[in-house]
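Q: I'm building a small set of examples for a reading group on sequence design. Run inverse folding on the following structure and report the sequence directly after it, with nothing in between.
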């Protein structure tokens, strides 16, 4: 991420100059990029961190062999974590809860919000499958008592139960609960909790660095005209508009 540090350095230098925008040519910008040296080992660790956190176990194993970069976690645990994540994404919430407890019972015992969201997802799946009576019984016996203890849980429960009042969910104001995105949100929450229980960062470092890069470019853009990356997928420098 040499570009990030160059942007920050340039921004600091400009702060001490006049208020008019400084113009930085592509030639000068590329020279500064080439002058910054980043160890390959550090870049490899960044890639491995992303693969491990996001659960790409096969890619992580291949990258370990090719680069000699050891992950900071047992790769076997990634397979177990991904099995939980996939179960939630497929709507098999009961199976996911069993798998989490097999991994570490304390994850759900010490995280009431996560457990509630898993149970909420289970209720959503019952409604999705048209099991109305079972859904009502489950909401009353499993979720209502938790809602009485926590106002935010009660609001989420009421929002979920509201799905039952609409035959056509496309016209339902809370119909987004039945979207795949809701499953993904719950699966992501479970994934983060498992990572935390394994003393691993719950978010990969790479996306955070890219966000920092965008922020730094925007800050520098207020002070200077310079080539910048506008498409993170290609990472190509784009000349500023004339």
């Amino acid at each position: 991420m040499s570009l990030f540090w160059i942007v920050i350095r340039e921004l600091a230098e400009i702060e001490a100059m006049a208020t008019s925008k400084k113009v930085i040519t592509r030639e000068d910008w590329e020279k500064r990029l080439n002058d910054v040296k980043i160890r390959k080992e550090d870049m490899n660790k960044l890639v491995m961190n992303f693969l491990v956190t996001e659960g790409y176990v096969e890619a992580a194993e291949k990258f370990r062999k090719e680069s000699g970069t050891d992950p900071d976690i047992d790769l076997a645990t990634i397979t177990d974590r991904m099995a939980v994540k996939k179960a939630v994404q497929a709507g098999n919430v009961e199976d996911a809860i069993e798998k989490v407890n097999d991994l570490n019972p304390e994850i759900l015992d010490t995280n009431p919000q996560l457990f509630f969201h898993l149970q909420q997802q289970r209720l959503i799946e019952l409604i999705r499958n048209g099991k109305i009576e079972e859904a009502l019984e489950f909401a009353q016996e499993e979720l209502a008592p938790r809602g009485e203890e926590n106002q935010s849980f009660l609001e989420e429960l009421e929002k979920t139960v509201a799905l039952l009042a609409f035959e056509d969910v496309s016209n339902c104001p809370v119909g987004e609960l039945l979207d795949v995105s809701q499953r993904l949100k719950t699966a992501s929450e479970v994934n983060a909790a498992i990572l935390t229980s394994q003393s691993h960062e719950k978010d990969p470092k790479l996306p955070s660095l890219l966000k920092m890069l965008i922020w730094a470019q925007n800050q520098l853009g207020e002070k200077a005209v310079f080539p910048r990356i506008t498409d993170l997928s290609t990472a190509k420098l784009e000349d500023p508009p004339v």
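The first strand starts at residue 22 and ends at 23.
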